[in-house]
Amino acid sequence: MMNEKNVLLTTLLENREYLNVRKELLEMNEVDVANFIEEAPAEEAAVVFRMLPKDLAADVFTEFNTDMKHHLVVTMTDQELYSIINDLAVDDAVDMLEEMPATVVERVLKTADPNMRNTINQFMQYKKDSAASVMTPEFIGLKEDMTVREAIDYIRENGQDSETIYTCYVMDAKRVLEGVVTVKTLLVSELDKKISEIMSKNVIFVTTDEDQEEAAKIISKYDFLALPVVDSENRLVGIITYDDAMDVMTEETTEDIERMGAMVPSETPYLKTPVIKLAKNRIVWLMVLMITDMISGGILASWQEAFTAMPILISFIPMLTDTGGNAGGQASTLIIRSLAMGEIRPKDWYRVWWKEARVAVICGFFLAVFDVARIWIMYPGQYLVGITIGIALFCTVVMAKSVGGILPLIAAKLKLDPAVMASPVITTIVDAGSLLIYLNTAAFLLRI
C-alpha cells in the first residue's frame, strides 16, 4: 500500500503538482512521510518538507535519520529552524544535537528560544548513556493539596505540551517526588477529594545518572507508560516515556548484535555507512581474532609428529573445534540475553555453571555416542580412534558450554559489555581448549 502511495507522490512531484502532493502528505502517518522524504532525491527532500504544516513538520523531523536532519538543518533559514526546534520535544532536540557537528549545534542553539536553549544546554550536560539523557521535562506535575477537580482542570490547560498525560506525578513545593496518580483514578474519584488521598506513594523511579538501559528494563518489567527521573535530592526533573525506552532497547540490542559479530558498533544505517568506515569497524576485531587463532596454530605445530604417525587424526579437528565453538556460542547467547533481560546477575555464576554443566553432559554424551558409532562404521577396525574422538568431543562440549556460560558473567562483573565475550572470543578460546583436550586424549589412549 505504501509503495503505491510513494509511487503516486513521486509522479505528482515529477509533474510539479505540489498542492496534490501536500494533500496526500496530510493524510499519511508522520513515519511514512519521513520515509518518503528520506527516499526522495536530496534536492526534492527540502521542497517536500517545506510543504508540511508546522505541527506535522516537527513530528516528521523527529523521525528522520541523522543524515537527513543534518541536510535539512543546513538548508533551513533561521526562521524555519526556529519554528522546528521550538516545536520539538526537548529529548528529541537533544538527541538531534548530539549527532550534529559543532558548527550546526552552535547555529541551532543560537536560533532557539532562550528557554528552549537553556533546557537543551542543561540536558546536554548529562552523561551520554544516562537515564537523564533520554528523559523529557514535559510531564504533568500535581500538588498534594489539589482537589481532583483542580487537577483535571490543570491537565486540560497544560496537557497539550506534555509528553504523556495518563500518568501524573505529585510533588511538594520543592519538586520532591511524593506520589503518582493516573488519569483513570482522577476520572473515577470524587471531584472534591484531595490528590493526597488517592495518589500512590509507592513510586518506582530512577536517578539522573542511572544507566539508560536499566531504566528501559524497569519500564519493560513493570509495563510502565513512563518512568520518573529524580536528581540526587529526590526532586523530579523529568520522565522517560515508553517509546524512548523502546528506542534505547533497540539501540542496545543492535550494539550487542554487532559486538557479537566482532564489529565496532555503528549508529549510521548500513547503506549510508561509507565502505572505509565499515572496514574500520571490522578490521580491529578481525586482527585480534587472527592473532589469537595463532595459538591454535602453535598447538598444532607442536604435534606434527603425532599427525605424521596417525594422519587420520587431522580429519577430526574441524569437527571438534566447530562443535566446541557452536556449543559455547549457544551458552553465551542465552546468558547474554538473560543478563540483558535482568533474569540473572553475575552473582548467579555458580547456578549458571551448574545448569550449563548438566546441559553439556547430556548434549556431549549424545554427540559422542553418535560420533563414535559413525567412526566405527566409516573406519572399520579403528575402535580406539572412535573412543578417543568420543571422549574428546564429550569433554570439549562440557568445557565449551562452561566457558560460554561463565565468560559473559565475568564481563558483566567487570562492568564490560557481555556481548564482547560472545561467539568470536569464546570460539577462539574454545578452539585452543578443544585441541589440547583432543591431542592429549589421543596421546594417552593411542600412545602417539
TrEMBL record:
GO terms for cellular component: plasma membrane. Residues 135-197, 199-255 form the CBS domain. Homodimer. CDD domains: CBS_pair_Mg_transporter. Belongs to the SLC41A transporter family. It is found in: Cell membrane; Membrane. It comes from the Bacteria. GO terms for molecular function: magnesium ion transmembrane transporter activity; metal ion binding. Keywords: CBS domain, Cell membrane, Magnesium, Membrane, Metal-binding, Transmembrane, Transmembrane helix, Transport. The chain crosses the membrane at residues 283-303, 309-336, 357-377, 383-407, 419-439. Acts as a magnesium transporter. InterPro entries: CBS_dom, CBS_dom_sf, Mg_transptr_MgtE_intracell_dom, MgtE_N_sf, MgtE_transporter, SLC41_membr_dom, SLC41_membr_dom_sf. It is a multi-pass membrane protein. SMART domains: CBS, MgtE_N. This is Magnesium transporter MgtE. PROSITE patterns: CBS. It comes from Lachnospira multipara.
